[in-house]
Amino acid sequence: MSEMNDGTRSALGLATGILFGALLQRGGLTDSRTIVGQLTGDDARVAKTMGTAVAIGALGHRLLRLRGLTIAEPKPMNPVGLVGGAILFGAGMALSGYCPGTAAAAAGSGRREGVWAMAGMLVAAAVFVGSYPRLKKALELGTLGRVNLLGGTHARATLPPLDAMVRPRAASHASFPPAP
Amino acid sequence: MSTHRQHHGTAIVRGSSPYLIGAAIGLLNVFAFAAFRKGIGVSGAYESSAALLARRVAPDAARVNDYVKARKEPPKFNWESWLVLGTILGGMAAGRTMGRNESLAVDDCTVVKPKRSPLASAAGGAMLMFGARMADGCTSGHGLSGTAQGAGSSWLFTPLMFVVGSFLARLARGDKHRDEDLR
User: Fold this and answer.
1) How do residues B19-72 score in pLDDT, each as one tens digit?
2) CA atoms of B81 and A104, how far apart (whole Å)
3) Global pTM?
4) How far apart are the first and last CA of chain B?
5) Which of A178, B49, B107, B114 has a C-alpha 20 to 30 A away from that of B170?
6) Size of interface A-B (CB pairs under 8 A)
7) From the CB of residue B59, how many other CB atoms can be counted at a distance below 10 Å?
8) Cα dihedral sign, A53-A76-A161-A171
9) Which member of B29, B46, B130 has the closest CB to residue A53?
10) Distance CA B31, CA A12 (A)
């Protein structure tokens, strides 16, 4: 799927991240008390922010998909991994007041809490990497595959991606990478 | 929000309406759907970075090779890793240019509401990252992007993690209230 030039992808990823981090900071989500406040029911900003983002994202995704400009690729429905992961994730979020994105923005904005949370996350990611070969079977136990609640087939994109339209030459080079 | 900061930034960002912020994040995600054929997702880059780091530190470790075999593709520093770097930079830029006063004011509030200890932040971060990798997504990959696509997995993960988090956060707050009552 490397239709797009890697350099362009990286640059667009960086730009997307900068906007994302700035929006998280502006939305007050770099303060650990915002998420904890949502969890205790004292602050509805997380629900308002996420609800709006999901609604607009869903609308945009649908429009793009109908035009063949994006694909629906739901992550696999692995009950064990998802339920176990959600329990750990919820507990960790209640304890730290962060999630992976808000911690990164918080660390950048100079909050020490965010740096500590990110450090914990990196350690856990390393532990996960070390244990994944043994965990894999359990995590995927009883998998239902890619479940799409909106139904329909997983439409494959029919148009070239944005990059190929904007910079056709760069993209066509990237689509035939030399064998490693 | 106080008014003496009104000259900083535009009204849109200064007001920080959660609906406007959410709409902007939603549009950003729509851009990601078009550009990357995939929505914003943060936690995967932590895993690939950790794997790359492990490979750099101990290139011959059997565990890292087993990991690559099990994951079926070698870890890469890809656009998602750049996205996380960007998130750090974006938080930095927003904090410096527009939010300095505000973030300091927020930090002053910690006299009233105590800050989390470094241990709580790190331990919580570790727990949630392990959970995110078990579930193959976090608040962004599942919560924002998967839900927008109608992914069954994301609609299972997102409500459940909020319910668990709410239950525990309320439990912890209840304990604190009880302590205060005793005093």
Assistant:
1) 999 999 999 999 999 999 999 999 999 999 999 999 888 877 778 889 999 998
2) 12
3) 0.84
4) 33
5) B107
6) 502
7) 9
8) positive
9) B29
10) 10
Cα–Cα distance, B7 to B16 (Å, whole number): 14
Q: Measure in Å the smallest separation between the Cα of B56 and chain A Cα atoms.
A: 13
Interface membership of B44 toward A (CB under 8 Å): no
Q: Which two tokens mark A66?
A: 């109908």
Classified as helix, coil or strand, A35 is helix
The pair of structure tokens assigned to A63 is: 């429009």
- Closest-CA residue of A relative to B14 is A26
Q: CA angle B16-B170-A92, nearest 5°?
A: 75
CA distances from B6 to A85, B2, B11, B12, B97 (A): 42, 8, 8, 11, 13
Shortest distance, CA B181 to any CA of chain A (angstroms): 19
Q: List all residues 6 or more positions away from B155 whose beta carbon is below 8 Å from its beta carbon.
A: A149, B146, B147
DSSP code, position A178: P
Locate tokens 């962060």: which residue?
A: A98
